[in-house]
Amino acid sequence: MSITFNRWPDEFAARYRAKGYWLDVPLTDIIDRRKDSDALAVVCGDRRLSYRDIDRLTDRLAAALARRGLAAGDTALVQLGNVAEFYLVLFALLKIGVAPVNALFSHQRSELNAYAEQIKPALLIADRHHALFTDDAFIGELRQLHPSLRVVAMRNDAAPESGLAHLFDEAPGYFIATPTPADEVAFFQLSGGSTGTPKLIPRTHNDYYYSIRVSVEVCRFDRDTRYLCALPAAHNYPLSSPGALGVFYGGGSVVLANDPSANVCFPLIAQHKITVTGLVPPAVTLWLQAMEQWGDRGQLASLRLLQVGGAKLGETLAARIPAELGCRLQQVFGMAEGLVNYTRLDDDDEHMFTTQGRPMSPDDEVWVADGQGNPLPPGQVGRLMTRGPYTFRGYYQSPEHNAEAFDADGFYCSGDLVELTPDGYLKVQGREKDQINRGGEKIAAEEVENLLLRHPHVVNVALVSMADEMIGEKSCAYIVTSQDIKPVVLRRHLRQLGVAEFKLPDRFERVDELPLTPVGKVDKKRLRQLIDASTTTPAAGE
Ligand code: AMP
Ligand code: DBH
């Protein structure tokens, strides 16, 4: 049985095929085409896997899962960090047509339950090293809430016979890959979201594979590429822009890092002669600080390209990258929903430092809308509207939200406020969606508000962004409460509900009432002004 999702209209699908964008080839082709290669594909700590190893190990895992009854049309909830198994599990599942949601390692009970609720997984793969899975309590809860769950395999399991590792050890037997057809859902990508529940994005083999191939072309990844994956491996950016999948397509090597700190990354760059990596802006700031304090440029000598995306990169910071890190900068403005913009490797400084790139595909249709949905000329700021060969046509099982997020012609409104330059580059100027971008980590305001409202003393709440020098934006919760309540209590309340740590408000402001707009909605613009004024006003006497 195939997964129901919003498909591209036939005439678009026909065009994307005719142009050679959609090849009707599954994503498993990325490793299949190199299955006889002994070239180094993945480095994870002391572990090194060749392309041949990846193919063999994913065959084994796929066969073991198939023997346990998993088959095309099933879905899986996967939560793994930056470890080799992340890619092994992904390809093994693709080989048997099981579509995963790859949750971030920072996700907790609330997020995992929300994903499971939507996809009704038959399989759970997670890590005993995650706080949620040190014992079996949460697995029991998942099984109870989601009766679809039949098979559980844990990384680092103490009982070897029930663990994920064991599945790689079973005799492979006879195995032929059976991916889903290329125009069906390959896996679900996560949206940063702006609504109460985290949204899922169905990605097909055809559209995702195309986005990877174009990315590889634009970023010139090849066999000499040594890519450091320092952001969460499951995130769309380090997975596909061109990310690890782009590296595999090009035949290079991926080196996994636990986090993007200079402490962790600089030695790995030196040791593995890393040529390219992708960061979010706050990590760039940390790298520049580290370089000033104890950095030895020699450590970064092999680094040719630094991609920066996920949140807006300021011009000053941008210009410091080539000057102080000694490598080229590429700005990346992408979204798990599809559209990816890159500055090009041969762009001049002006484009490189002041724009967020231009769409990677000639068939990305991008325009800027005013408040009434009319197109605006270059130079004017408005809503980004887009559709194209790898931009989705609807969130999974979300008809109401989709009715708002798309216009009648199938253009997706990302909620970003942008300006187009006369030569087709984008400058991100703000955001209209109810989201906080905490240094690349997206927080849907409504999701956190709903969780706070579950506290008996919270009467009303609005979560807004506040400017932060270091990470761009942090979150501030304006709360109306029935009695005095300390921030620490509210943070504990959120942790008890099991929400990712990065979603906890950085600051709480107690108010008697929330300001309203003339139509009676909470006036978040006013709240943002209030918080920015209070954080930037010098104290009396200064
Ligand atoms: P998501 O929906 O979680 O995949 O997040 C995508 C969103 O991240 C975009 O819609 C933008 O709001 C933001 N974003 C990604 N890259 C950039 C960038 N280079 N500059 C500014 N915002 C970005
Ligand atoms: O922020 C993102 O989601 C993002 C950033 C850069 C992304 O999905 C991408 C590139 O593909």
TrEMBL record:
InterPro entries: AMP-bd_C, AMP-bd_C_sf, AMP-binding_CS, AMP-dep_synth/lig_dom, ANL_N_sf, ATP-dep_AMP-bd_enzyme, DHB_AMP_lig. Pfam families: AMP-binding, AMP-binding_C. Pathway: Siderophore biosynthesis. Keywords: Ligase, Nucleotidyltransferase, Transferase. GO terms for molecular function: 2,3-dihydroxybenzoate--[aryl-carrier protein] ligase; nucleotidyltransferase activity. GO terms for biological process: siderophore biosynthetic process. Residues 35-396 form the AMP-dependent synthetase/ligase domain. PROSITE patterns: AMP_BINDING. Its EC number is 2.7.7.58. Residues 447-521 form the AMP-binding enzyme C-terminal domain. This is (2,3-dihydroxybenzoyl)adenylate synthase. It comes from Acerihabitans arboris.
